Amino acid sequence: MIGAPIVTPASITAPVRRTDILQLAREIRKQFDPRIIEDAAKRSEIVLVRMSGPAGRDAGFAYIEFTRRPRYIESLGHPEEPLRIWGAWDREPVRSIVINTNSGIPEREVFWHEFYHLFYSPHALQRSERFEHHFSTEGALHSQEERRADEFAAAVLVPSLQDCSTIFDICDRFGVTERLARLAMKLYITLTNE
Prior knowledge:
By secondary structure, this protein is α+β, with helices and mostly antiparallel strands. It has one domain (18-68, 95-193). The protein contains six helices and three strands; from the N terminus they run ααβββαααα. Strands 1-3-2 form a three-stranded mixed beta sheet. Helix 3 crosses helix 4 (138-157), helix 4 crosses helix 6 and helix 5 (167-174) packs across helix 6. Residues 1-12 and 124-137 have low confidence and may be disordered.
């Protein structure tokens, strides 16, 4: 799929407010059916890996690795045959989401959480990766990004609380875990009270 556009929002910046997260989730739902993560991964050029890791441990992680691809230019004599520029390379990202199938968390909840990290967390923050500075607030920033990733997954998978008065209504209607339903309820209630 080299040359195919990656289907992601144009600006990749860390959202600061919950309203920003909600807006990102709306954009994602316009592009994808959030229940079909394989399609979202393919259209966003994400390598989706499912592995059976330790039971009940980390649910997944997002990872970006950069590869070198040879650079080509258009041939004037044969436009249909690009010419390789010897010694010239383009650095291209390979984005991956790895899901632990033994985590006990539904794959789509893990996928959308990691999707947030891949495209919106500063420098694709994940587990062992660090912010560039080393202030004492580093742990707080990591926790904040984890909360944002959770809220993003909740907003993508639970588009509204309409006709849902309990956590169990949300679980039944949208097929999410109680944990994600609680996050969604808290997110939407917080937004209506702001």
